[in-house]
């Protein structure tokens, strides 16, 4: 695995958590959900790391030809798709995605009219997350297309954001009311089931259509190693669902369930992305270095953000 490939993998993973955190915040504010308070500071901190990801995106721009096959060769694509996937237009769109999300994160964490910001933000964020999934992930195989892919991948990002926020919340010592935590449990379980159904629906549509160019995407991910990775991913999801299904689960069960959900997302994302080349020490070192830098920035933001501890401890 090359250095650019390693940076690409960690970029997609961290951008997904940051953008998914925006969705968690906006839905929570828009619906006045009482489950938001225990994870609000964690989600806000994750969303505010987007400027760091913008810098990482600038680095990746120098390796565009290495990451996307269409960057150096049009690959006999239809003229409309070839124009859409031109390197200059791709970089403009990618910068727009990150700048819009960065602006939304700042607005959402500094405004007093949270519901208005959330309503406008969701209207902007939905197409941003959908098209960023098409551009950053699906275009790695530009001859394949799925109208459900953006939704399925976006739901996975929201799942990862909520699971990581719950995990960090439960590792802290501040108490949260049982009713709020029970609502978080329901929200996480709902996302797990919705994500599973959306990916299955996409597979079912491709299977029913039975078109060679549609099936190729799945055939490329059906080798022994890939099937093992996919099986592991859904075994982790099933374990998380089984743990979270009983009403009023314990703090430890929530901790384990959220960790399993995050591991499911990670393994499934790797199955979707299909990293090219074996994992080298250089690639592993780059992944851990960038992840550690992101965690450091995340921790620094957490220290200066409000904790909402009193609100989280109160019964709604």
TrEMBL record:
Membrane-spanning intervals of the chain: 6-31, 43-64, 84-107, 119-138, 144-168, 188-207, 227-245, 252-273, 279-301
Coiled coil: none
Record keywords: Membrane, Transmembrane, Transmembrane helix
Superkingdom per UniProt: Bacteria
Protein name from the UniProt record: Uncharacterized protein
Provenance organism: Microvirga lupini
């Amino acid at each position: 695995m090359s250095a650019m490939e390693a940076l690409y993998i960690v970029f997609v993973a961290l951008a997904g958590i940051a953008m998914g955190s925006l969705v968690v915040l906006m839905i929570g504010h828009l619906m006045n959900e009482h489950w938001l308070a225990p994870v609000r500071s964690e989600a806000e901190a994750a969303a505010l790391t987007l400027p760091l990801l913008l810098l990482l995106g600038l680095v990746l721009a120098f390796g565009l030809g290495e990451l996307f096959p269409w960057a150096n060769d049009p690959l006999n694509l239809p003229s409309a798709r070839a124009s859409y996937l031109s390197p200059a237009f791709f970089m403009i769109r990618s910068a727009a995605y990150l700048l819009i999300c960065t602006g939304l994160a700042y607005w959402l964490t500094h405004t007093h009219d949270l519901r208005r910001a959330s309503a406008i933000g969701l209207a902007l964020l939905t197409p941003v997350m959908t098209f960023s999934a098409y551009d950053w992930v699906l275009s790695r195989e530009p001859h394949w297309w799925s109208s459900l892919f953006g939704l399925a991948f976006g739901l996975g990002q929201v799942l990862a954001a909520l699971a990581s926020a719950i995990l960090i919340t439960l590792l802290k010592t501040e108490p949260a009311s049982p009713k709020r935590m029970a609502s978080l449990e329901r929200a996480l379980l709902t996302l797990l089931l919705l994500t599973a159904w959306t990916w299955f629906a996409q597979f079912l549509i491709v299977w029913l259509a039975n078109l060679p160019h549609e099936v190729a995407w799945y055939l490329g991910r059906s080798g022994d190693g890939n099937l093992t990775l996919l099986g592991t991913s859904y075994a982790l999801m099933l374990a998380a669902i089984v743990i979270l299904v009983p009403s009023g689960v314990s703090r430890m069960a929530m901790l384990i369930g959220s960790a399993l959900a995050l591991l499911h997302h990670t393994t499934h994302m790797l199955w979707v992305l299909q990293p090219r080349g074996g994992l080298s020490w250089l690639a592993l070192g780059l992944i851990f270095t960038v992840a550690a830098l992101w965690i450091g920035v995340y921790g620094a933001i957490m220290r200066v953000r409000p904790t909402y501890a009193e609100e989280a401890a109160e019964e709604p």
